[in-house]
Design brief:
Helix content is 27%, strand content 25%. The chain is built from 3 helices and 6 strands, in the order βββαβαββα. It has helices spanning 40-57, 86-99, 138-146; strands at 14-19, 30-32, 35-37, 70-78, 111-120, 125-132. Strands 1-6-4-5 form a 4-stranded mixed beta sheet, with helices on both faces. It has a two-stranded antiparallel sheet with strand order 2-3. α2 (86-99) links the parallel β4 and β5 (111-120). α1 crosses α2. The longest helix has 18 residues, at 40-57.
């Protein structure tokens, strides 16, 4: 069993930014001969996340949760007021981070903190910041302060 003490790490957080809306992996599976597959738009989005991770890490990915529980902060830039299922968008990010090798596992023992915020943005995007422990991630806080929260009309 893992020790849940706050890990001491000098490892800098990783920030991944992907343009466009986050597609849901859960709601639109295609069933074929009893097998389910994620939708094509999710697979393409997941590849964009992986490409962004590989560019930042220069091909050397060491999972963040190997140092102890990590934190994931997600900002969703929304350009309209359409209804979207936020927990599916968070799940899509966690699955993509695991597929890209940033996380070994997205269980509660590996990811101790997940925070998300929705903000208004003229162009849709999403941004995930992964750090070891429960550090305050100044880049996310700065992004949140610089943008307006999405309000109903």
């Amino acid at each position: 069993m893992k020790n849940f003490e706050e890990p001491q790490s000098t490892r800098p957080p990783i920030t991944i930014v992907v343009e466009g809306c986050v597609p849901s992996k859960k709601n639109r599976r295609i069933l074929s001969h009893g097998k389910s597959f994620p939708p094509k738009e999710f697979i393409l989005w997941q590849k964009a996340v992986k490409k962004s991770v590989l560019l930042q890490s220069k091909g050397k990915i060491e999972p963040f949760d190997s140092d102890g529980p990590c934190s994931v902060y997600i900002v969703f830039g929304m350009s309209d007021l359409r209804r979207r299922d936020v927990d599916n968008m968070v799940t899509s990010w966690l699955d993509a981070l695991q597929e890209a090798g940033v996380l070994l596992d997205d269980s509660w023992t590996s990811v101790g903190c997940v925070q998300s915020i929705l903000v208004y943005s003229p162009r849709p995007y999403s941004k995930a910041v992964v750090s070891v422990g429960n550090e305050n991630v100044t880049g996310v806080i700065k992004t949140i302060k610089e943008t307006k929260c999405l309000k109903k009309r």
